[in-house]
Design brief:
The structure holds 2 protein chains of 2 kinds. By secondary structure, chain A is of the alpha+beta class. In chain A, about 35% of the residues lie in helices and about 25% in strands. The longest helix of chain A has 15 residues. The relative contact order of chain A is 0.09. By secondary structure, chain B is α/β, with parallel strands linked by helices. Chain B is globular, with a radius of gyration of 20 Å. Chain B starts with a strand and ends with a helix. At the A-B interface, helix 5, helix 6 and helix 18 of A face helix 8 and helix 10 of B.
């Protein structure tokens, strides 16, 4: 555990990617094989089920430290991380690591006591804390509470493994994807050549694009490119192998069971097939057969539901808009040129002829200027802009520059005033960085959005200082702030919502500009927002 | 009439007609220590500790200064004033104010651990105690100084072995002097940023012995600094000035480094939770040692700290002051250090 805690510490404090990479490589070279499997699992979101919830852990800490509940909460809002707060509050351990235990010991112990009583769990946690230094306690707490975001991306881990095993990163990325249980998988099972074909559910690593920089005309001859709409759903892969259907989301989550609409695909899609596309709610009322995707908010409410009503299934079923074909008749097509894959995809989708499996249409244009004009109609089509793909490009893994670009439409914007602030998390600990914004409604201010990104560190420091000097009331961690600072809020879409006082919900709101030139009485109104809702939510 | 009032110019003793650490120009100012949020420009008369004066002169220029030693009372309009070690930085003092049998103590900034150069914090019995609360949360519990120093030395030695210069970010006044001795134990030469060196010189000139260190000047060569140690104020971090030491590693000495998010935000290579302020246990211990019936908590987590005291049978209230700029000193300290 000590070794793992040191790895986490180095990665967490290092500012250089190369150092992180090196420390991971060093770790993989020396760690016990079983720990290595667990590290891969932990850093790729495959932690064991949490044995206790965070309230349990919090209460245990409060009990040991003998501090009031409210004081714990104050500490937590300042630190911005529950596992770290607890590690800082717990008394120093007298005899650290009387007996060193491995990472796998702890994680496998979590699994074995999952069904045990609270007393058993409590005893295990206390006993573990009693043997750890502060660093180890932090890591241990993070393993229990989840959300292991400590500054290591899956990409870095894949790179480190690739170097350790001397194979290409894309091979590693594929091997560690899909469905595997760290408790029963050995390092050899996971990483050796022969075993990679055993799991039929494995998706390919997604190819992700960067935003186009400047004018797309700089990309050269438009005839070498294909342009298609960019849809706002959940990127996913549909896999049919060995007569079984698997649906993966981009977050590498197996979501097959969430979408009963896809059940029909299992028996009818050809075997040995992998499609890349967008999981998205569709409006089935269109008579002309055109794609009418519904806003992301429809999909969002749908995902959070356990049981799906008949009405939802008929009125807003989840469809799949296919972008690409990665495997056909069991053959990996990723090295083929995009244009060839696209042709195959068109034939496949057409012959399959299923109302919920669509192909993302391409735009037929002669020059970049014409494409500009088409892009301007994105919002009416329910799309968030365009994707540009080089005709002869292979399907790469991860976010890469060069062959694929996203060219999103400009965001919608509205000027609003900050009215509440809350301290942030992680590197924003003890800084007020999470704000709530309001527009005018007559004499009143109505809150309509929360945002916590878009400012520079320096601007955040300035706003933080303003909040500390101008807060009026305190509601738990939230401070009411004198309505004075005006920001331009940018967002990707707007939908009606009865969960918000303002009656609207924004998609991806962030601060695009600090309008130091504007006063509170110059901000937008609730009517402006409603007008936007009317214009941009119409026809969807 | 309370012995000390909270006014828009600062803490005021109406009977003695003097202010303590005023943030606006006044006739008579009693100064706890020479940090710029406590010792401000423009007053007609300053009373401070002997060791505080050279820094005030450096920063505020020539003024009417009167100095006293610790435990050497002076009287202003019948009010007895004495200074007592606060352990924060060199010369830092608590101010004890007595009139008609009533005693108030203004802590200024303080720490309870003896750092070996600032004088050992002395608990002073009083009826009313005005305390700082910069680190008034139980997550702030400092490691003992020797442990932190050995962490710093190990880091410096490792950098040296890797051919990298160790750039230590520390406040020009206080932390910079505090780390000099342990750094000298590494046997590596130490270089000082101009702002740090100015303070260094002023203190040396007033008879304080500090380990030898050289000023970084335009003619300082890379060969001289490479693999060695540089101490700079926080304003220097990330500046073109610091780039000249490349390859280098940056380590920040600050209590805020206790929380990972803070060190990640500052993008530093190493964070050492070395503070010149009392930690949670230090604050509680100090408050209890005064035996005060009433406590006012200022600059820091004053709301939290006073609520905790109230729940534990000590009457406390929070007071807003302009010291330390509320909960986060780091930003203002950047300006403070560069201004020096």
């Amino acid at each position: 555990m000590k070794q793992f805690a040191e790895l986490v510490y180095t990665i967490g404090t290092s500012t250089k990617t190369n150092e992180k990479l090196q420390s991971l490589q060093d770790y993989f070279a020396t760690a016990p094989a079983k720990d290595m499997v667990w590290v891969i699992a932990v850093f790729s979101g495959r932690r064991p089920k949490r044995i206790v919830n965070s309230t349990f852990l919090k209460n245990l800490c409060i009990e040991i430290c003998d501090i009031p509940y409210w004081l714990f909460e104050e500490c937590y809002h300042t630190v911005g991380d529950l596992g770290e707060t607890i590690a800082l509050l717990l008394p120093e351990t007298e005899n650290v690591n009387a007996e060193e235990k491995t990472l796998s010991y702890y994680l496998e112990h979590f699994i074995s006591i999952l069904k045990e009583s609270d007393e058993v769990k409590k005893a295990f946690i206390l006993d573990s804390w009693n043997q750890m230094d502060r660093n180890e306690k932090f890591v241990f707490n993070k393993l229990i509470t989840g959300g292991f975001r400590i500054g290591v991306s899956q990409t870095i881990m894949v790179k480190a493994l690739a170097k350790t095993k001397a194979v290409s990163p894309s091979v590693i990325a594929h091997r560690i994807s899909g469905n595997w249980d760290p408790a029963t998988t050995t390092a050899d099972d996971l990483l050796s050549e022969s075993s990679s074909t055993i799991d039929h559910s494995k998706p390919y690593p997604f190819y992700l694009s960067y935003a186009v920089e400047g004018e797309p005309a700089a990309l050269g001859d438009i005839n070498e490119w294909t342009a298609e709409w960019k849809w706002d759903g959940i990127r996913g892969q549909i896999i049919k192998r060995n007569n079984e259907l698997f649906v993966w989301s981009r977050g590498e989550e197996l979501v097959t069971e969430k979408f009963p609409e896809y059940d029909g695909f299992a028996s009818t899609l050809p075997d040995g097939l992998v499609l890349d596309g967008e999981i998205i709610c569709l409006d089935t009322s269109a008579v002309d057969g055109s794609i009418k995707p519904l806003p992301f908010s429809v999909l969002q409410t749908r995902i959070s539901r356990k049981n799906i009503s008949k009405k939802q299934l008929t009125e807003a079923p989840v469809g799949f808009i296919a972008y690409d074909i990665l495997e056909f008749e069991g053959k990996d097509l990723r090295e083929e040129a995009f244009i060839n894959r696209r042709k195959l995809l068109e034939e496949m989708v057409e012959s399959f002829n299923h109302p919920l499996l669509l192909i993302s249409p391409t735009l037929q244009v002669d020059d970049w200027k014409e494409l500009h004009t088409e892009r301007a109609t994105s919002r009416e089509k329910g799309s968030e802009g365009l994707m540009l793909k080089r005709n002869n490009s292979p399907y790469l893994s991860g976010r890469k520059k060069g062959d694929w670009w996203k060219w999103k439409i400009d965001a919608l914007t509205i000027d609003a005033v900050m009215i509440y602030a809350q301290k942030g998390h992680g590197r924003r600990s003890n800084l007020y960085t999470d704000y709530t914004f309001a527009v005018k409604d007559g004499d009143k201010l109505v809150s309509f959005a929360k945002a916590y990104s878009g400012l520079t560190d320096k601007e955040f420091a300035q706003v933080d200082s303003f909040v500390k000097r101008n807060s009026m009331e305190k509601f738990g961690p939230v401070r009411t702030v004198k309505p004075e600072l005006v920001f331009e809020i940018a967002f990707e879409g707007i939908a009606a919502s009865n969960r918000h006082k303002s009656g609207v919900a924004l998609r991806f709101p962030r601060m695009s500009r600090w309008r130091k030139d504007k006063k509170v009485d110059e901000i937008n109104t609730l009517d402006d927002l409603k007008e936007m809702l009317r214009v941009y939510n119409a026809g969807v | 009439m309370p012995l000390i009032e909270f006014t828009d110019k600062g803490l005021y003793c109406p009977q003695g007609q003097f202010y303590i650490d005023p943030w606006k120009p006044v006739d008579k100012a009693v100064i706890t220590h020479a940090h710029s949020d406590h010792a401000r420009w423009g007053s007609k008369y300053y009373l401070c500790h002997t060791l505080t004066k050279p820094i005030l002169q450096l920063r505020l220029g020539d003024n009417q200064y009167e100095t006293v030693e610790w435990n050497e009372p002076v009287t202003m309009n019948g009010v007895k004033i004495s200074l007592h070690p606060a352990g924060h930085i060199i010369g830092s003092s608590q101010i004890r104010v007595e009139y008609g049998g009533e005693v108030w103590v203004v802590s200024g900034d303080y720490k309870t651990e003896n750092d070996g150069i600032s004088g050992a914090f002395e608990p002073v019995r009083c009826h009313t105690f005005i305390t700082e609360s910069t680190f008034g949360l139980p997550i702030y519990k400092w490691k003992p100084q020797p442990e932190i120093f050995s962490d710093i030395k190990a880091w410096v030695t490792a950098n040296h072995a890797a051919g990298k210069t160790s750039v230590l970010i520390a406040y020009s006044l206080g932390k910079a002097q505090r780390i000099l001795s342990p750094l000298a134990e590494t046997g590596l030469p130490t270089f000082l940023h101009g702002a740090v060196h100015n303070v260094h010189e002023a203190l040396m000139a007033s008879g304080i012995h500090l380990p030898a260190a050289q000023r970084v000047t335009a003619s300082t060569t890379k060969a001289e600094t490479q693999g060695n140690i540089v101490i700079a104020p926080s304003g220097a971090d990330g500046s073109p000035w610091v780039k000249r030491f490349s390859p280098y590693s940056v380590g920040v000495c600050s209590g805020w480094m206790q929380v990972r998010g803070n060190s990640r935000r500052q993008n530093v290579d190493a964070g050492f939770a070395l503070s010149d302020h009392a930690d949670w246990d230090g604050l509680l211990q100090a408050v209890k040692a005064t035996g005060a019936e009433k406590v006012f908590a200022t600059h820091g987590f004053q709301a939290t700290f006073s609520r905790y005291l109230n729940e534990h049978g000590i009457e406390a209230a929070e007071v807003k002051t302009e010291y330390g700029n509320d909960e986060e000193e780091t930003i203002e300290d950047t300006e403070k250090s560069t201004a020096l």
